[in-house]
Design a protein that fits this description.
The chain is α+β, with helices and mostly antiparallel strands and 333 residues long. It has helices at residues 42-58, 92-110, 158-172, 178-181, 195-202, 208-214, 228-239, 254-263, 267-273, and strands at residues 7-9, 16-18, 22-30, 63-73, 81-82, 88-90, 113-121, 126-134, 149-153, 221-223, 242-245, 280-284, 291-292, 295-304, 308-313, 316-319.
């Protein structure tokens, strides 16, 4: 599309950047594709969607400032909101309040606020969140440099593990009713190994504090919304460099490894492909400590001259064929 001089950076990164340093992004979320109301409350839908949208601004090394919310509510014959195949779950007004409570709770932690939006009636529950932020010096997918080290925050595959756990509980109905499942982890006994995974799926808070602490050291930056392999490939392509992953360094929780073993999944492939962790993947020429602002930061590879995404195996570098989430597939949930 033809530029007109007002946009500094347009299509191709986590968000757009205007000439004045405004960073802006928009994300759409659909019932049955991006969230599952068989185990999520409306408030939790708001929380999860807000985390995802705000993460794009954080992944540009910007401070989130305002969120605009557009809702499409599946109201039926004026008798309430029908979602998730469960029939009417409340009035449209109460549904809006619950969604906004979830969104605002995340905004409160991120230091931004809901600034408005729109509401319409549609066939299913849809949310579109636009987030605006500010930065004088955005960090881009194209910023990685040969000689940099590759880092990731948190743990890989946690959010997808949590989704798998909750979805399996709904299908089985072995221990709890569906209404109890929608309490989303609060029903679990303290110390349950599944809790961190469920929490990361339902409320994957953006790594704003880590970004603030490391911004001056960061070259290339992206979040892992679509999975590690996809994010690292974006860094490689946009920066025109070769990214080499070290498989033994990939941070995966023991609980995720346990789940992979139970499901017959390869932990390495799962770590490469699983998305929606909303962790930060970044490059730096500096050595970064193991914990930053209370979050684990792990070196997982290197940036070299060349092209493509590679992974070390038995002393050799092999091309990575794994990929993450495809936005044009509709069988997500």
């Amino acid at each position: 599309m033809k530029g007109r001089g007002r946009v500094r950076l347009g299509i191709g990164d986590d968000a757009a950047v205007l000439k004045d340093g405004t960073v802006i992004t928009t994300d759409a979320y659909a019932e049955g594709v991006h969230f599952d109301l068989s185990y999520m409350t409306l408030r939790q839908v708001g929380e999860r969607c807000a985390c995802g949208a705000i993460s794009d601004v954080v992944a540009m090394a910007a401070e989130p400032e305002a969120v605009l919310v557009s809702l499409a509510l599946p109201a039926r014959r004026g008798r309430g909101l029908e979602v998730g195949g469960r029939g009417t779950v409340g009035s449209a007004g109460s549904a809006v309040r619950e969604l906004y409570r979830g969104i605002d709770s995340v905004c409160a932690e991120m230091g931004c606020e809901v600034a408005g939006g729109d509401i319409i009636v549609a066939d299913k529950l849809l949310l579109a969140l636009t987030v605006a932020g500010k930065t004088r010096s955005p960090r881009l997918r194209s910023g990685a440099r040969p000689g940099d080290k590759l880092y990731v925050t948190g743990y890989l595959g946690s959010a997808e593990s949590g989704r798998m756990i909750l979805a399996a509980e709904v299908r089985s109905h072995k221990t709890e009713t569906r209404s109890q499942n929608r309490r989303s982890g609060r029903r679990k006994a303290k110390g349950d190994w599944r809790l961190p995974l469920v929490k990361r799926h339902l409320r994957p808070m953006p790594r704003l504090a880590v970004m603030r602490a490391l911004k001056s050291l960061t070259h290339g930056l992206i979040d892992t919304s679509d999975g590690l392999a996809t994010a690292a490939r974006h860094l490689s392509e946009m920066s025109r460099v070769r990214v080499v992953l070290e498989p033994e360094a990939l941070p995966v929780l023991p609980s995720t490894r346990r789940l992979c073993a139970e499901r017959g999944r390869d932990p390495l492939g799962f770590a490469l492909e699983a998305g929606e962790d909303y962790e930060l993947l970044f490059t730096s020429s500096r050595q970064v400590s193991g914990v930053v602002s209370g979050v684990k930061v792990t070196r997982i590879g290197t940036v070299e001259k060349g092209r493509g995404l590679w992974i070390e195996e038995d002393g050799r570098a092999l091309p990575v064929t794994a990929s993450g989430y495809d936005h044009l597939q509709v069988d997500r949930v």
